[in-house]
Amino acid sequence: MSEPQTDRTGAVVHVALDETRAVSAYTVRLDDGTLAGRADFVDPPGVPGERVFFHTEVAPEFGGRGLAGLLLGEALADSIRRNLTVVPVCPLFAKHLRKHGDEYTARGGRVRRPRPADLALVGETVKDRGDA
């Protein structure tokens, strides 16, 4: 998906889109393939061009390395490339957009606030994968 990136420790990491799991996600992996984090999303059925991000997580042992920022940055860049409107349900994603949203929209990104239907969709998605 993207070129290899370097985290705050100087380690090479890779961000990729993983649509093979029950819930699609952007993932960040170390150079050796170890999964360090993910940003889960769902594309609302019947609403083309939108992506609802609802959960972002970096494993605690990889904290402080800037991986969440790299992960969210690439998810947003890919959303621009795909011409998608981002709907940030995830608090970390929303916080990232509050800080970097002007830059994101200046590059052509689109964001809209979550609606009750988005929250219901997330609830169904999480329930369907067995997390409820």
What's a quick, concise take on this entry?
The protein has three helices and seven strands. With 132 residues, the protein is α/β, with parallel strands linked by helices.
Name the descriptors:
132 residues; alpha/beta; 3 helices; 7 strands; 29% strand
Helix share bin: 25-40%
As a whole number of angstroms, the C-alpha radius of gyration is 14 Å
Note poorly predicted spans: none
Structural class: alpha/beta
**How many angstroms does the end-to-end distance come to?**
31 Å
Number of extended strands: 7
Helix and strand succession?
EEEEEHEHEH
Q: Identify the strand order in the major beta sheet.
A: 1-2-3-4-5-6-7
Largest sheet: 7 strands, mixed
* Chain-averaged pLDDT: 93
The 3D shape can be described as globular
In terms of DSSP E residues, the strand content is 25-35%
| Helical segment count | 3
Oligomer: single chain
